[in-house]
Amino acid sequence: xxxxxxxxxKITLDDLAQVHMxxxxxxxxxxxxxxxxxxxxxxxxxxxxPAALGEERGSFLLQGWFYLGLAGFAGALIGWAICEPAFVxxxxxxxxxxxxxxxxxxTLICVACAISESIVERSVRxxxxxxxxxxxxxxxxxxVFYSFANIIFNVxxxxxxxxxxxxxxxxALWIVRGVAWMVFGAAAGLVYGILGQxxxxxxxxxxxxxxxxxxxxxxxxxxxxxxxxxxxxxAVGLGxxxxxxxxxxxxxxxxxxxxxFYVTAGPLxxxxxxxxxxxTVLGSSQQCDIYLFKDANILPQHAVVEINxxxxxxxxxxxxxxAGSPARLQVLQSGAIVQIGRYAFRYQExxxx
Length: 353
Prior knowledge:
By secondary structure, the protein is α+β, with helices and mostly antiparallel strands. Helix content is 51%, strand content 13%.
């Protein structure tokens, strides 16, 4: 029961002026630091607002079709240069250059394509590891596939000559060589996928290599006729074989991708990372699937993208922003912008608009 003698409480402006609010953000940060924890700032300080990263113009040098094509061309030319001095034209007794020419070209196309992505991503460690693995794989597959290609070529030549095509001026024989050389492209694509630790990547690589090498095989004889044979024609023809195989691998891989990150800002702007594996690690360690260099604020294993059926999520060990908001465990929707340090990625899914 309220007494009638009680008087109301009065708060004056002088009273309000004497009230002091505690500095919550500073004390909160001090508590975290004292506890030995990691502080990423608070909402009140604005530290969790990511720096604005506008979309940068991507370089075509980071497109898969370009660097794989360049790698295939370089690998084929190096293989030719090694074997050409010991290559003998015509029916004369052959030397080791005749035996090794095509397997060597295939081997070095395999090596070059396998390490090209690591070079683009500035990962010397990955490039060394992949080259060490690709070399023996390329030699084995080079000779195995060379045997298959010879069988296809000899059978095709016999059929064409039985039908009246006696000279390599006849386009039917060009097609036979193209079909036989598809085998070489398959070898390069398989090695590329095997070292990427993905069966799907190996399949896409083999399909692209088959298409590109087939084109390279078809144009080899017209080049040989135009240059009147010899080492120069072999160099041009084999170089174009390697380039076509690499370009084909890059184009097919890009066309058939279903989930990927496109780098919109940072040192790798314009590069796309296709998400083949169930877990893809991003960080500043060269062991990561996506190596993020030149940023001291990025942890060795900063985040992991996890794919479980149709669900794709990012699990973060360090500061990550998805659509401008800080994230620890976040489901990714197609079109979402993911920012890690100075890098920004746009996550894409083919089946979503």
